[in-house]
Amino acid sequence: MKLTARKPVRRSASDGAMPARFRLLDGGMGMNGNKPPIQERMKEKILILDGAMGTMIQEQRLTAEDFGGEELEGCNEMLVLTRPDVIRGIHEQYLEAGADIVETNTFGATSVVLAEYGIADRAREINLAAARLAVEAAKSYSTPEWPRYVAGAMGPTTKTLTVTGGVTFDELVESYYEQALALIEGGVDVLLLETSQDTLNVKAGGAGIRKAFETAGRTLPIMISGTIEPMGTTLAGQAIDAFYVSLEHLRPISVGMNCATGPEFMRDHLRTLAGVARTAVSCYPNAGLPDEIGHYHETPESLAQKMAGFAEQGWLNIAGGCCGTTPRHIRALAETLARYRPRTVYGDHPPAVSGIEVVYVEPDNRPLMVGERTNVLGSRKFKRLIAEGKYEEAAEIARAQVKNGAHVIDVCLQDPDRDEAHDMEQFLRHVTKKVKVPLVIDSTDPRVVELALKYSQGKAIINSINLEDGEEKFQKVVPLMHRYGAAAVVGTIDERGQAVTREAKLEVARRSYELLVDKYGVAPEDIIFDPLVFPVGTGDEQYIGSALETIEGIRLIKQAMPACQTILGVSNVSFGLPEAGREVLNSVFLYHCTKAGLDYAIVNTEKLQRFASIPEEERQLAEDLIFHTSEETLARFVAYFRNKKTESAAPVSQLTLEERLARYIVEGSKDGLFADLDEALTRYKPLEIINGPLMAGMDEVGRLFNNNELIVAEVLQSAEAMKAAVSYLEPHMEKTETAVKGKMILATVKGDVHDIGKNLVDIILSNNGYEIVNLGIKVPPEQLIEACRKEKPDMIGLSGLLVKSAQQMVVTAQDLKAAGIDVPLLVGGAALTRKFTKTRIAPEYDGLVLYAKDAMNGLELANRLTDPEERERLVREMREEMEKLAQEAGKRSDGDGPADTRAVRSEVNREAPVHVPPDFEPHVLRDYPINHIVPYVNMQMLLGHHLGVRGKVDQLLKQKDPKTLELKALVDDLLQEGARNGTISAHAMYRFFPAQSQGNSIIVYAPEQQDRPLVTFTFPRQRVAPYLCLSDYLKPVESGIMDYVGFLVVTAGHGIAQEAARLRENGDYLRSHALQALALELAEGLAERIHHIMRDTWGIPDPPTMTMQERFGARYQGIRVSFGYPACPNLEDQRLLFDLMRPEQIGVHLTEGFMMEPEASVSAMVFAHPDAKYFNVDKAE
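The structure corresponding to this sequence follows.
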């Protein structure tokens, strides 16, 4: 079951436990009579698990005395001793409702958790009593035709090894051991490790359970259930496939998900799990996400309907409920799912290892690269950092390897002068937070290997074991593979030594395979053979031809044992050869090994060349040395490469100083910049450097951006490098010197609070030689005029987002003209078009008016304006365009007829049923969890629209596009930092009101007095078919039927503008821009989430199959419209919404121009009509 209501250190105040399933070892039948094993019953029907224990306990309205005193109040587990009648009654209610499995009331009954109440010593007593209560209840309902089962619930505890700490792996093992042993003795049928948020905790639970099996002398099935947060991973970071792969070694009978979310968030994860799991699959969600007062909105019917969608896909073997579910929910589930067959076609997956992320070994991704630089025996830098105790800095080497293409990281800390165990423990504490890829634990000491595995959430690789001392290494290490879940590298070495010939390699591999699989129970896919590679350049006769023998050894091993993998330390082949030759030989050797079947390659990924790019002559020399090793081929190879430089160093050294300076700007890099600036200062004046190579770099950035070869984020990185360079040079400049090409006044027009686009222009132009006077947002014409007279700018830049902002630009242009100002006017923003600029703004101004489609186009125009010849050309172009437009306007006016003024109406169905909301109370949600919003954030808008990623973002992320991954990591970092420091907060409110239409107006009534109008909105109607108006979506007054409308206001913008400005001042342009963009999209995502909640409670839930992409495309019933946009363009109506909602209570205020502050805020009017759709009132024929 699921627990709840604990001290603050526990889960929520509603429910904190939920079921799960997995199976360790064999199967068992508990002590509950001669009923069939639960595994057999799962083949016959979808088994129904019970619902929330905590929710039901809360309904009992218990007092402190019921728990055994004030100090124990909230400790639900104590009720099995103090109020066993209550717990027995809850079990029976769930059994009566149709549950096949009930969980013991032991979610938090480990000694680790009970210690928080000072009763750790009562853990065994509580677990025994809880098991016996549940067993007795199940027996009273169990029949031969309908057997009932008891799952011993084992929660995640209140501590996580990976995230919070506060407990050791071994302490958790002992705590779980004590709990499991008592549950077994109490007669449960299955053990359930549930609500698992950290795979390391589950591994500790598995180890404790196995120990309990040994003590009890028998085994039970194990079920495992993980908790996937709304952000898409466990609390410790794993997605569901990595979670599953990391725990397969426990041999559970089922794996599934529970808690954290409602079913809609589980769909994609459940699909993935059903595709890879070789076990049964379980799912028991919460009854949705809790509202502001802790209530869950999924009704029994809606939950059952959504779960039926999963059953219809064939994904379920076990279904139940978690937080917020009751016997009513379980009854609905049992009745609905009885119509569906259980999942019978189980999943599968290629051989895999995992860290936080899973890596599959597949033909199209071979070989997987194993980074070799975190090895004290192979990297002097890494060894030095470890010796100096700089573990975090050492972990950065691992991160760099991943960035350069490593799929797995080899960790070796076998420095004979140091304590390997201590170094391993300290290093893993850091590296597991830096990289998500699987780890290779490279040690010959089994104690160090075991220590390392206690820090690995995932399925690591142990490097290595062999038959050098007979089976001794197998006997010591294989138990660790079974205990913690790991694969192992198996060297082709036996009592006779290292196998050199292909036949010897195959012979040793066969013997190792037979022992490991048949005697030690290792899965073939967890065996990774190392056929060994020897240097070809030492002249040692025993190794002549060994490179070819290794290639053919790989081929023979893969043919004989195709389920196993192979691995090689590739660079050993070139040991002792010239550096440039090593890179070539390693790359050629790797190519041929891969063709032979190599799966993993231990390499320095930065020192590999593409085989196809290696010159033919060099490739031939390498192949001769590999396939025809002799003194002659070795001599030719060494002679050719002895004085040859490695290609990687050539490009930098061949560039001139000026080219290098420009390249820093183009690449957005500061690595080496200041040293080259120092050199440049010995040759040039600071201004010459700025206007010369640095500005040449920015010109190239502009060219690349216009050619779609750079994205916005990369342009910002270039601007950061430019700012750093100019700041470095400024102290060397004379006071009279200036790098300024021109001055621009920049402003967002009156009434508009949006400044992200304007700030982007500020960043780009200020780092391209322009002085920017940024007046900020909501700038009225009189302030702009005063600034122009004071600053005497060369040009003015105006920005605006909404339709009203475009109209305000017309007014601003008129006022500037009246004030006698005629400097060039650059305008831009989402509300503007080139046509509007030419036809509406330009005629109202005496000076040049130019439309800039984006910041880089604005820079291009500014550069043309500061060039006399280009400026004159712009004047001529504009004059010609204005004359052409005047002629076209004259022709159109001759043919204009009178406007159609007849009364019209749309064909929207006026007979559609009314959807009655559940209440009319204001719902205020302060500090809404950011992780609940993230799934609703449109990454295409965030990374694509705002940060400039081109293409489909979701596909680019799947393809691991480096730039997209880098920007996604930046966004994730901002989210984590915002949650940690409180720099990002989200608040929301929504409310339903009675409402009716009257012509083109909507009358909103007082909820408590539904004949008293509160406000009236009047909306425009389309002047052409289909003649839509928002009022069409409500019942008219004359119908006599009351209809309803909703309103919402959300914000994620508090403090964002200030933090973004601080980052900008520090030259951190990309982070500043990304933060503002993130806040905007979080607000949009929260609006999407609140609208989703409103639909659910309004009786128009989304179909169970609806994806988030479909939600972004508004495929649901109903719409939400925001004032200032096409269906309701009158921004002034925002005042009426504020009068109704009073969003000041969540920190959202209305400006004089009827826009919201903070900028990252969204308001909307919500309709439920089935025909409601988005439209533009200005639609033309």
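Confidence is low (pLDDT under 50) at residues 1-32, 647-651, 892-902.
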